[in-house]
Design brief:
The complex is a heterodimer of chains A (290) and B (389). Chain A has 290 residues and is mainly alpha-helical. Helix content of chain A is 73%, strand content 3%. Chain A has a two-stranded antiparallel ribbon with strand order 1-2. Chain B is an alpha/beta fold and 389 residues long. In chain B, helix 2 packs across helix 12 and helix 5 runs parallel beside helix 6. Classes of the chains: A mainly alpha (290), B alpha/beta (389).
């Protein structure tokens, strides 16, 4: 492998990792702070992709406006979903959480089938991001992929600032370490959870919307993402946003170079990575010891 | 006035279940559809059933004078449930013929069960080579294709007609992908080409970027790809986005561009693929079929509908020869083997192993259609490796 190819592969890794981060960050927030195993998280990613597909014709060139609308819609959806279903799960065992969120996957898939059908759909790249640039004569790289990476970086920074620099972020972090103490201090935990959950859903949906023009929109697209995201969350340490970022990039690199060098075993790569890290640090890279 | 209590509901449901059983004691021929009616492949399952029913309707609702009764099982394209599902048809419903299915893994389980019980099986899609290879049997038929056929034909065309020397193949690492990869290699290398690299990624992973970079670095003359559904759409789009479609032509079996052109948009234009059916055959037989199908179902037929239609034709031919007595399996098979099946795709015969001996079309993507540009292989027969018939 020459240097140019190597660099392009690094770019591929970072780009894949960043997109994973966007989905996984929502999952780690919900998982870490609310203690709910949310198998339906992949469905929110799918929801985003299908939102992009159905909103795109109405918004035309206004891609960013479409993203904003989609985020708003999915946040409202998440808020209602928490109120209707998830708020009953916090005191329950993990098995019950898994059962209900798995049921939600089935419901969402069926709804998708009824509302949009089972066909594969494409979402057009907005005209101002169409086209590609040449990478040292090797291949061309679409501008949209670069845009997607930039958007993910921007969101990572924004997320970091919210969690570490705002009052809401302080409550979220406190809620993650000691739920009862936060409640004791007079903070409305019910509302806090609802907001966090809505935020997590919105993040996953946003990832789905950003990914839609690259990956197309198809039935069952949430399932594959979900599993990788759980790997990311476990590697990064449950509830840690920074950990999720590092883990996403690690997974991106292992997956990309695994496919290149160990094609036969590439399906195992990220799980081997997870196993190694869990042996070394059972709580994940940046997780707290329990 | 009775109130609707759970008990009355249960009683009603039981009656509803028993009623068809009682009716089945007559001389009706029981056909069991085991097809995907839910999940990703549900559209394919419905198309197959539609095609089958259309042919039965054209025969006046009867085959060889016997009325047909249909039983349906949703196989969910889940190999883990396949044996249970097929046994429902064989043991519970006692069907005379099983028709199914789309997913190769499920079809293999069905073939195994059919072989053990001796129930007749007609496979209207699943392309696993083994169904008409090691699993072949006198009472197992296939009206679709083997994975080998389409990929082998493409390999020969890419080397001979397109004059490419070095190719890379890329697919998911699973049975169908590997069968096609090997068959392409066989056809391509027989005509003097060389497959320099075989790339795979785990099913159903769709992160192609790393492997596209490998292709760009290796600079082959041609790429042969097999993916289906969402994977097919994404691969063709990613390939174009990487600018590779301008320098290295992409080829594949027809599934790469069948039913996916809407989503692939401009990125698939001009691509060559091979399949045993195409959108504009424009033969009187195909036109008549398409018209009848569109009239009946208010839908355009596809290759899956054709395969279902032909499954019913095979059943009709065999049944007529044995005068409706389906227990005469040897005579049934002999009649089908001798027959020419008048398919919308073009007439074909069945080989000794009961796989279609058929023309494989070379098709080019033009707008929203896969248009025929020629015949990639004439009357191509699957080698039926491992079949002892």
């Amino acid at each position: 492998m020459d240097v140019a190819t190597f660099l392009v592969q690094c770019l591929n890794s970072v780009q894949y990792g960043l997109l994973l981060f966007l989905v996984a960050s929502g999952l780690t927030l919900i998982f870490g702070i609310m203690g709910v195993i949310n198998l339906a998280h992949g469905s929110f990613y799918m929801l985003g992709a299908y939102l992009a597909f159905s909103l795109a014709p109405a918004f035309g060139d206004q891609f960013l406006l479409m993203l904003a609308t989609g985020v708003l819609l999915s946040a409202v959806f998440g808020y209602l979903l928490e109120w209707a279903f998830f708020s009953f799960l916090y005191q329950r065992e993990h098995l019950q959480q898994v059962l209900m969120t798995y049921a939600l996957i089935l419901v969402f898939e069926e709804l998708r089938s009824i509302l949009v059908g089972n066909d594969v759909h494409g979402v057009k790249v907005p005209p101002w991001l169409d086209g590609s640039f040449s990478l040292g004569g090797l291949m061309s790289y679409p501008w949209y992929r670069l845009f997607a990476s930039a958007a993910c970086v921007l969101l990572a920074v924004a997320l970091y600032l919210v969690v570490n620099r705002t009052r809401l972020g302080m409550m979220i972090r406190a809620g993650a370490s000691n739920r009862d103490m936060v409640r004791g201090l007079g903070i409305d935990v019910t509302r806090l959870y609802r907001i966090v959950f809505a935020g997590g859903v919105a993040l996953a949906a946003l990832a789905g919307m950003i990914a839609a023009p690259m990956s197309s929109v198809y039935p069952g697209m949430g399932g594959s993402v979900l599993i990788v995201c759980f790997v990311v969350v476990v590697i990064g340490g449950i509830g840690s946003i920074t950990g999720a970022l590092i883990a996403s990039l690690l997974v991106g690199f292992v997956d990309t170079f695994g496919k290149v060098f160990f094609a036969e075993l590439s399906g195992m790569g990220i799980y081997v990575l997870m196993a190694i890290i869990l042996i070394w640090r059972p709580e994940g890279l940046l997780g707290r010891k329990t | 006035m009775n109130r609707l209590t759970p008990r009355t509901l249960v009683a009603a449901a039981t009656l509803a279940l028993i009623a068809p059983l009682a009716a089945a004691q007559g001389a009706k021929l029981k056909v069991g559809f085991m097809l995907p009616y839910s999940g990703t492949f549900s559209a394919l399952g419905n198309a197959i059933e539609n095609g089958f029913r259309l042919q039965v309707a054209e025969q006046g609702g009867k085959l060889a004078g016997r009325e047909i009764e249909f039983v349906k099982v949703d196989d969910e394209s889940d190999p883990a449930k396949a044996t249970d599902n097929v046994n429902k048809l064989i043991k519970r419903d006692n069907v005379d013929v099983i028709v199914g299915t789309v997913h190769s893994g499920v079809a293999m389980a069905m073939a195994r069960a059919a072989k053990e019980s001796g129930t007749m099986l007609i496979v209207p899609n699943a392309g696993a080579d083994a169904v008409t290879g090691p699993m072949c049997a006198p009472h197992i038929f296939r009206t679709s294709f083997s994975n080998w056929q389409n990929a082998y034909a493409m390999g020969a065309v890419v080397a001979k007609q397109e004059k490419k020397k070095k190719a890379i193949t890329i697919t998911w690492k699973y049975a169908a992908g590997e069968e096609m990869q090997n068959a392409f290699k066989e056809g391509f290398e027989k005509e003097g080409g060389e497959v320099v690299k075989t790339l795979t990624l785990p099913f159903p992973n769709v992160e192609f970027q790393a492997l596209l970079t490998e292709i760009a670095a290796a600079k082959p003359d041609a790429v042969f790809a097999f993916f289906a559904g969402g994977g097919a759409v994404k691969f063709v789009k990613d390939y174009a986005a990487a600018g590779l479609n301008k320098t290295i032509p992409l080829y594949g079996p027809g599934f790469l561009t069948d039913g996916t052109l809407e989503a692939q948009g401009d990125t698939a234009q001009g691509m060559l693929t091979t399949l045993h059916y195409a959108d504009n055959l424009n033969t009187p037989r195909d036109n008549a079929f398409r018209l009848a199908y569109a009239k009946t179902y208010k839908l355009q037929p596809d290759v899956y509908a054709v395969q279902g239609y032909d499954a019913a034709q095979v059943l009709a031919i065999g049944l007529t020869a044995v005068k409706g007595d389906i227990s005469k399996k040897a005579e049934f098979a002999a009649a089908v083997e001798k027959a020419k099946i008048d398919s919308p795709r073009g007439a074909f015969t069945l080989s000794k192993a009961h796989n279609p001996v058929q023309d494989i079309y070379l098709r080019k993507v033009d707008g929203k259609e896969n248009k025929v540009v020629g015949v990639a292989a004439k009357a191509l027969a699957d080698p039926a490796r491992g079949c002892k018939l």
